[in-house]
Please model this.
Amino acid sequence: MGFLTGLFWLAATIIVALGAGWVFRQAAIAISPKGVAKELRTAPLTASFGMLMILLYIIAAVFAPVIAPFPETQVVGSEYQVWDDVHLLGTDNLGRDMLSRLIYAARNTVGIAFVTTALAFILGSVLGLLAATVGGWLDQVLSRAVDVLMAIPALIFALLLLTIIGTSIINMILVIALIDSTRVFRLARAVAMNIVVMDYVEAAKLRGEGLWRLITREILPNAMAPLVAEFGLRFCFVFLTISALSFLGLGIQPPTADWGSMVKDNATLISFGDITPLLPAGAIALLTVSVNFVVDWQLHRASGLKE
Amino acid sequence: MSDKDVLLTMKGLRIEGRSDEQWNEIVKGVDLTLHRGEVLGLIGESGAGKSTIGLAAMGFARDGCRISGGEIHFDGIDMRNASETEKRGLRGKRIAYVAQSAAASFNPAHKLIDQYSEAPVQHGVMKKSEAEGDAKDLYGRMQLPDPDGIGYRYPHQVSGGQLQRAMTAMAMACRPDLIIFDEPTTALDVTTQIEVLSAIRDIVEQFDTAAIYITHDLAVVAQMADKIKVLLKGEEVEEADTDSMLSSPKEDYTKSLWAVRSHARPEQPPATEGTPVVSVRNVTAAYGTIDVLHDVSFDIHAKRTVAVVGESGSGKSTTARVITGLLPPRRGEILFNGEALPPNYKNRSRDQLRQAQMIYQMADTALNPKLRLRDLIGRPAQMYLGLNGKALEDRVRDLLHLIELEPDDYIDRLPSELSGGQKQRIGIARALAAEPQFIICDEVTSALDQLVAEGILKLLDKLQGEFNLAYMFITHDLATVKAIADEVVVMKEGKVVEKGGKSEMFQPPHDPYTELLLSSVPEMDPNWLTELLKARAAAGG
Model:
């Protein structure tokens, strides 16, 4: 019986999610300009659901002070209160409101992840495109340096660096961006390698175009699709790394709310069969899955696959 | 022939392809009857549905295509309603397929003979050892060198022409009733093409196999086919015996196909006075440490077209790379209007770069797919001539007019929204935008259909007169040379074998290599191949 109920709820959740995706897509098509609407029409329901979720996360992050019923760090009750009408999701190990912290954490975790990924991309793709276009010794030096960085396990390397230079949000962003930029570098270089041998790049070189224009006009636009797809995936990885670091105590420092450390702080409750500490983990999972839905759709479109 | 001999019939065949989210008809009701031992030539331009019909004979439609109507009967079997298992039993055993690119169709990880024996063993016709013996026999009949040993090589260890013959032998493995040849010699040089054609013809005759021979080359089909069917945009234009089709085509479209070959512009006398625009002087160039060009010299004068002819690997394109500065020569120099150019393009001035432009073989890869025509054509004008805003837009529109495309319709298109011939025109416009004196045309028509190629050649011809351009025309196609060249340079293995005016080049006496090259160009006469082989055998033996 329990199994059947579970199955029922699972099916119901999926249907509701896809339904929400459908409603969202229709609404989006209705309010978007023509060009965007045409693109949106090609989105599968999973991608629409993903976009809806991402939008909700962004709203939560931007309007956190308005939405959250309590302040982020204030102790508003006793420790580990159960779910009730005042504290919808109960309180945490210090008596702070769980729901409010969940909402504020969207701002911290997602915001920081976004900045970090953007930084990793700027660094990685600029160097990767440069290495592929210029080639020769520059390519050798950059590629070997990246090989060295990639040879060290990412999480351990991050822990090491953060221990050396000290834990602060800025340092964490820089360290993760550096480590992740090596992955972006490899992708950008590999993609660009296939583009620089095209005749149109040769034609541009023979025309006497400078390096900057060669990269921005001839190579980058043609490398965009895989890079955008990678951005989505990389965003998830960065996000998980931040949460992992926070869980280990080297990431976002208390009392700032973030999902990784929220799991850690309330981990005791798991042994009592309470699912509250898993909610932040669920928030991470949901965003990761949503981003991947959207990325899949984009990847599919960019690679020219139909159906 | 009686109805008993009918091997394959198609009635009102319709095939649809999916694009832009909807089904479009690409074969619109074609009828076809093929008797045992008969060879049918299917000709038409790209997009005519030749290959699609060929594959449909096997009851097969490519991904994204479906057979939507009509009947296909192969030896009494209804191919449209046959089960997959039944069709699989026929494919490879009773119907075989030879693809255009043998190099891409062989599995590079297995030896030729293992791939040969796969089909007979699979279909239970022969044991592995029998199949291998049979392979050696057929390799011999296909006139492959070392028939006993060649099967134990991997595909990359044999040449393109040999691979194509090995592929034909493989198709013969189960002694099928029908073979479909899909442009089997299109990717080959003329001299290699002869060997493959004669081998295919012999083996088809020996085993009395029926064949559908798909090609866009009329002269080739004239050698191979008993009857010819002409297709245009998925519809049949006409069908007739080879002889009557060649001598008296009925439809205008067929006549226009035939006429293309007869176009030639009047030759201008070779210019001897004045400084040549481009002068290649004793150039020796190497990739790595291996010399690929040996002491190459020739001149190109203003308003003249110099065709550089040779087979693949003869150094034609390498010469172009040396002239443009992409490959600095080891020895020798390039003079432009009498002045030496820096060997590396990076050291050339902007004006030197402007003066020599290049048009590429594959327009697909030569145009940045993310830029609109406005930017593709406008960029050289903006860069070299400093045009901007309204002046630039006007210039782009003028150029589009020159290449006979309507500016309002085309200026904001992406390359993907153009046909192959239009893309090549954009390549020409981009070269013209720089207002050069000299243009290198690297096999510009070889990827195009004959009628489209003809249009491009005429356009280039017209532009030459208007702007006093000098052309270096790289090609392996002697018909193109006849059509456009003033002077010819024949290259072989990185050396200039012969050079001179076009008329003397096509008149004997020739260098032996030029002779071989010239005599290998297929002619429309159906007996050409037979007689050529006879003549060569007599001369050789």
